[in-house]
Design brief:
- The structure is a single chain.
- Helix content is 46%, strand content 17%.
- By secondary structure, it is an alpha/beta fold.
- The chain has a six-stranded parallel β-sheet, sandwiched between helices.
- The longest helix is centred in the middle third of the chain and has 18 residues.
- The two termini are 18 Å apart.
């Protein structure tokens, strides 16, 4: 097959999981795969401003569109229709349900202008691909032909943690879009720190030290208020300041983001005994994948997650989003080494048996090669 992938970003984990790794393993199976990183536009003498498909576009037999693009929706849709007219298979790929984004997400206002484009691309595609059943069912409101291609890992990219810490280490990893999720467990962590000894690590959230980041965020907010004194603060800003207040109640170690190429090494070096995945139960979160669980397992960190979709379908060690439930579950895991090791063994076996990219690439191959419906 000749496959053209059009990512909307090549610097994040979405690209790596949904485009980069599939490209690598499809090529290993003998398929030709190219990336198109830019759209070339020109002024047509009759139709005005439009987009030039280019040689790569005409070369391909399968074209994979992703998430959303910062250009006028009509140009993207015209490209998708042009491809279909040429007999090409048009795929729309997303691992987030972007039209139900929560207001507490930092890109909510940015995505609001792209919602129509996302819906149109889902409707126009020959097939839509995504990560799990819940999000697939949502996409079916726009396109009945949806296939699940699960996020997967490459075992050789991961190294088991050193297991040298003298104290039990509990960690959380994620971005600033998950402030509300992290807020779920702070009170439980606070109470546990009064009862037993352990270290609590926050990995990510910001690209710089937490205090520096939050200070800059507040300063920027004040500057914005001078320009628009009657403007209401964004929901995301409110969730971040709430998180700041909550984090002031506890002792924690903050490890800022690292470049994507260093992420696996850093996660191992953090030497976490327990990785927590709290998740607010809402439709947008339910559409996510459990990639964090796979990553924890690959560095020998046991996962404790919220008892909500998608975690409850795969993790095998989940807890209701209640203060006492989180506190008691964490305390048990911290104090019971045998339980931790047993659950970790189960979790890692699940990942290695079900979520290795090399063993799943035939799913991508099948979806891309099927005759257009």
């Amino acid at each position: 097959m000749k496959i053209l992938i059009i990512p909307n970003n090549t610097e994040n984990n979405c690209y790596r999981l949904r485009n980069g790794l599939p490209k690598k393993y499809l090529e290993e199976k003998g398929h030709e795969v190219r990336l198109k990183l830019e759209f070339n536009s020109y002024n047509h003498p009759l139709h005005g401003h439009t987009i030039d498909p280019g040689k790569d576009f005409d070369w391909a037999k399968v074209i994979v569109f992703n998430r959303h693009y910062d250009i006028d929706p009509k140009y993207i849709i015209s490209l998708m229709r042009y491809a279909k007219e040429q007999g090409k298979r048009v795929v729309y790929e997303t691992d987030d349900m972007l039209d139900i984004l929560e207001p507490t997400n930092p890109v909510y206002q940015i995505m609001d202008k792209n919602t129509d484009q996302v819906k149109l691309m889902m409707m126009e595609a020959d097939v839509c691909t995504t990560t799990g059943k819940f999000i697939a069912d949502k996409i079916k409101n726009y396109n009945g032909n949806v296939r699940i291609l699960p996020n997967c890992i490459v075992p050789s990219e991961w190294t088991p943690r050193p297991k040298k810490s003298k104290k039990i280490r509990v960690g959380w990893a994620g971005g600033c879009s998950h402030a509300e999720d992290l807020n779920l467990v702070i009170d439980a962590v606070k109470k546990l720190q009064e009862e037993i000894e352990f270290e609590f690590v926050i990995f990510g959230m910001t690209p710089e030290p937490w205090n520096d980041y939050i200070s800059k965020l507040k300063k920027k907010h004040k500057e914005n208020l001078k320009k628009r004194p009657n403007a209401n603060p964004a929901k995301w800003y409110q969730s971040m300041t709430t998180l700041e207040a909550n984090l002031n109640k506890i002792k924690f170690i903050h490890e800022p983001f690292v470049p994507l190429k260093d992420y696996a090494k850093k996660l191992s070096e953090l030497d976490l005994d327990i990785g927590i995945c709290p998740l607010v139960n809402n439709p947008f979160n339910n559409c996510k994948s459990v990639i964090k669980f796979y990553e924890y397992a690959m560095v020998d960190t046991v996962t404790l997650a919220s008892n909500v979709t998608p975690y409850k379908e795969e993790v095998g060690l989940v807890v209701k989003n209640r203060y006492l439930k989180w506190k008691n579950a964490l305390k048990t895991l911290i104090e019971d080494k045998e339980l931790r090791e047993g659950k970790l063994k189960e979790q890692k076996e699940f990942v290695l048996n079900n979520r290795v990219m090399k063993d799943n690439i035939d799913k991508w191959e099948k979806v891309y090669s099927e005759i257009t419906l």
